[in-house]
Amino acid sequence: MSLFNIFNVSGSAMSAQSQRLNTVSSNIANADSTTSATGQPYRAKQVVFSAVPVGAGDAKGVKVDKVVEDQSPLKKVFDPKHPSADEEGYVTMPNVNVIEEMVNMISATRSYQTNVETMNSAKTLLLKTLTIGQ
Fold first, then answer.
1. 73 vs 71: CA distance, rounded Å
2. Do residues 40 and 89 lie in contact, with contact meaning Cβ atoms separated by under 8 Å?
3. Looking at residues 93-111, what average pLDDT do you find?
4. 16 near 64, Cβ under 8 Å?
5. Residue 51: beta bridge partners?
6. Which pTM value belongs to this model?
7. Domain Flagellar basal-body/hook protein C-terminal, which positions (predicted)?
8. Does residue 134 have a pLDDT over 80?
């Protein structure tokens, strides 16, 4: 594998983690939303990654294959005064677990940082390689 492929692999991973962070932030922002754009309660979304060939050789990068809705059951909260309450007084709330989303956010952030450090290390190695012949 060429040293230049490291930039392609890390770059693809950074792009995928950036989309993961956007999805997590959307989930957290809608954690208390009783309705989404469709009029139904918001459902948490999860990012699905897949490996893709990058550059020459066997180098594999990462891409977002799809963003899927979490099919876990929605939460029912008893609040008869809420405008969205049903006839029994229950409000259907999103299936977003804020704690899980925060952990997911930390994981995505650390992964992004690791890929930035990988690119910086590869750049340093390339620069030192260029100075060998001087």
1. 6
2. no
3. 95
4. yes
5. 62
6. 0.84
7. 88-131
8. no
Are residues 51 and 44 in contact, defined by beta-carbon separation less than 8 angstroms? no
**Structural domain count, the chain:** 1
Per-residue pLDDT of 56-82, as tens digits, reads 677 788 999 999 999 999 999 999 898
Are 76 and 93 in contact by the 8 Å Cβ rule? The answer is yes
Residue type, 23: T
Q: For residue 39, give its domain range.
A: 5-124
Phi, psi of 108 (to 5 degrees): -65, -40
Tell whether 134 is covered by a domain.
Answer: no
What is the rounded CA–CA span in Å between residue 64 and residue 15?
Answer: 9
| Residue 114 in tokens | 């690791």
| Residues making up the chain, counted from first to last | 134
Cβ proximity of 47 and 18 under 8 Å: no
